Amino acid sequence: MKKIRRLSIMLLVVIMIFNTNMTAFANIGSEFATESEISGNVIVTNTGVYINDTYYSQEKFIQLLDTAQEIKVLQNRLAAGLIAGTWWIPGIGQVIVTTAGAVIVAGVVVEVGSWIYNAVVDWFAQRAIQQAYEKAKENGKPTNDHSTQTTSEGSSLPKTERPNSSKDLKDNQGVKQRRYYDKDGKADMDIDYRHGGTGHKFPHRHDWNNGERGDAY
Asked: In this structure, is the dihedral angle defined by the CA atoms of residues 189, 184, 85 and 80, taken in order, positive or negative?
């Protein structure tokens, strides 16, 4: 009975010490978090981020995202078109977007809502939208952002529309033409299904360059 009592007292002391240390650690962390967010070898400040003791401004970090090389895309699409996966950025290392929406930079989970989290999410979401657009254009399919115009509304499609979108021109026989609009909302490519004239094979395509429609192919 005395042995059990001694063990109980020792356990109580350990718990009290552990709780005291955890409280002190939490206080230190909350005070430091007002200046920056530290996780492992990544320190996020209001103006940039230290990764493995190298400082990158917000602008520089976002520029480096343009060098991201895709390693693996997970079979999951998140909100806003973002695709979960793993990318490699020279000088930074791996950037991972998990299927739960967490962002991991250089092996460290970054805080949701921080500028670095938002930068990664926004950049890769835009990249996913662009990739989906290019795939739809290659396959001649409507993009995720697709609309329709009838010939009664206008005999030709507009040269500008929403970025990464597509639009069909329809008459009473169906789709006459499909136009794709690039990331700047400018006419990018047409697929013609029917029109007047002779010597044409349908469907055929026309690329747009500097506001001018190129030859059929």
From this structure: negative
